[in-house]
Protein 1
Amino acid sequence: MAGNSKSVLLEAEVIIVGSGPGGATVARELARRGKRVLLLERGIDHRPRPYYGTYLGALLYADRMSLLFTVEGLNIIRPIMLGGATSMYCGCAAPPPPWLKDKYGINIEAEVTETMTELDIAPLPAHLRGPASTRIAQAAQGLGYDWQPQLKFMWPGRSRAFDCGAKCMLGCRCGAKWNAAEYVYEAVAAGADLRTSARVDRVLIERGRVTGVSGTLDAGSQTFNAEAETVILAAGGIGTPRILQTSGLRQAGYGMTMDTTAMVYGFVKEQGTGNEPPMTWAWEDPEAGYLLSTLVDPWLNYPIITARKGWRYPLTWPRWNNILGVMIKLKDEISGGVFPNGKISKPLTGADRQRLDQAHQLSKQILVAAGADPASIFMTPLRGTHPSGTVRIGEMLDQDLQTEVSGLYVCDASTFPEALARPTVLTIIGLGKRLAKHLASPVTQVSMGTILP
Ligand SMILES: Cc1cc2nc3c(=O)[nH]c(=O)nc-3n(C[C@H](O)[C@H](O)[C@H](O)COP(=O)(O)OP(=O)(O)OC[C@H]3O[C@@H](n4cnc5c(N)ncnc54)[C@H](O)[C@@H]3O)c2cc1C
């Protein structure tokens, strides 16, 4: 609870809430265009701490110590720290799906191309893709599926000693992976005011126009009010709808996508994929609505996750080094949501189940072709790593990402009108760059100054 001391007052031209790829990008781009930016982030920067990238660390900075579940039992990993979920991501990059432009009129091609050059996005060189991962990809290719090396936000050359493996998902310790916090510090270098441990609870609205935000600082010990003519919510697919709901935009959070994910594991005698960089190869079937890639859960997560399937599965833990893993990501339909009572629900629809079944059968075939013992193959329980689509373009947001409240924008995974079923970060950066251009354009400046009657 907030203490008795007076509320802190802050002021800026633009307030941005959340420092994941959405918030970090807009903050950097607007600060570089001379805007007075205030960036409010609920977490802190854990990266310099000795525990960053360890199992203990992942408990400390993931929401509910990584034990956040939907009512259906999907485990959601939701990092709360500077850089958002790029602090625990696999460093994969994928261009936005064509339908974003064709169906919804959101063209971010120029912004994505610029980002790919700026961040040197490319697959890892062949010798770093991992022999077991490459064997899976070759087995799939042999069956007629055109698996490709996955684009990466990874620069092996800048790492202290490139040391990627499943443990990358606890946080990158070797320094090879790009993190949105890097954009945050570039925003700060350009003049942005960054406040960490700053949790925004609501947006302040007067006569249909945004006037600022309010919340608490330093683990709730101090309240604050911050004023600005423009507010951009980038608190992620769960955080943003919660703030909107508290602020009276009750439609937010109804319906969501998750790119619902499962792993299919099979055992071999040789080294498996666990100590290789995650997701070095991938293949997507846009018609069927799923993506397959190479991945294994980190060593200590493995028995915990498999125990949820049944007591026999954690017994395979000693053979973690011999697992070949294929990850399934589904293009799940909009369902469930993030509700005002705090609950999150993400039921699979009938079509989702059909997709999952198809992806499961194909993953089994690929693992067998890659040499896995057919009797050893099993699929893990479902989980969610991309909570998104909770404040959708075309429903709650216009094409410029503005809500019904003048001056109030959203720029994060919650804007997706459908499941991407692919890595999200490059699309979110593209949206952030596009929004910054829009907000900095002289036409927008004039209309932002107009107060509704
Ligand atoms: C294990 C894992 C692996 C992944 N791998 C990949 C991958 O390889 N490639 C890829 O593209 N994507 C990947 N993703 C998904 C991707 O990281 C996320 O979809 C993306 O980071 C979402 O960006 P965002 O800006 O919407 O929100 P987030 O990254 O979630 O950032 C939101 C920020 O807002 C802050 N916040 C929340 N509430 C508040 C509040 N009330 N006040 C102030 N601040 C608040 C949070 O602390 C957080 O920093 C992965 C995700 C996970 C969990």
Note: Residues 448-453 have pLDDT under 50 and may be disordered.
Protein 2
Amino acid sequence: MSAATGTGRLAGRAAIITGAASGIGLASARLFAAEGARVLAVDLPGSRLTEAFAGTGTATLGLSVADTDAPERIVEAALAALGGIDILFNNAGVASAIPVADLADEEWDRVVDINLRAAFRVTRAAIPHLVASSCGRVINTASVMAQGTDYGLAAYCAAKAGLEGLTRTLALELGKHGVTANCILPGAIRTGMTGGLWDARPDIAAVWAKKSVLRRLGEPDDIARAALFLAGDDSGFVTGQSLAVDGGLRLRI
Ligand SMILES: NC(=O)c1ccc[n+]([C@@H]2O[C@H](COP(=O)([O-])OP(=O)(O)OC[C@H]3O[C@@H](n4cnc5c(N)ncnc54)[C@H](O)[C@@H]3O)[C@@H](O)[C@H]2O)c1
């Protein structure tokens, strides 16, 4: 069932969502727009961004969040298309599974740049506008792997754990301006990142589903609904937190 039901919970808010052409970002962009937000959806050039939002009124911007000029371009596009920034959802991410012994510097840098450094740089550029908002929100998509691990996940785990540290510090520094900053820790969610493998290896999908105490894989809408909570008024006194949305996965690992 789609989460995009719409009761105006983000009416009048301006939201940037990165990694919005697929999976969690796409579901969140649709839900935020259905709840009344003006949305700037950001994803790689060549992603399905344009098709995903054609005719919807959602603004789009194709770039890599790791580009040197990405923060300025994202903020400029948000101001032009949305007129301000109330919500910044740093969600773009890439996975990587290479054992430390074989992990090249370039792969470490690629994973950390996209998952962590870009979130820092885009947030830094957005801070004056978030502070000017009466309801500023930063939401970062980390992972249950920020607090756990698996073979080959050193760069990914380090980046996602770093995102939690960044989020706590943002919460501390921006709290006096009424801006909250929180992380979401998704569990095993069926998206572009995981779907291909799980379609090819249903046995692996079944293992992840069984690890959840709810005995199912997560869907992008499960995370979008948590993001909506963190983006809206219901979470006004919640900051510096990591919200696991994992079907209880971590209770069993
Ligand atoms: N799917 C899961 O099980 C899971 C679990 C924990 C955390 N996450 C995190 O959720 C976030 C969203 O991933 P998803 O699962 O929806 O996967 P996804 O692959 O469906 O979506 C990720 C999106 O990010 C975009 N992206 C990648 N690199 C980018 C870049 N440099 N610049 C701009 N956009 C870029 C991709 O094009 C894609 O559209 C990621 O940060 C991921 O690490 C996912």
Note: The longest helix spans residues 105-132.
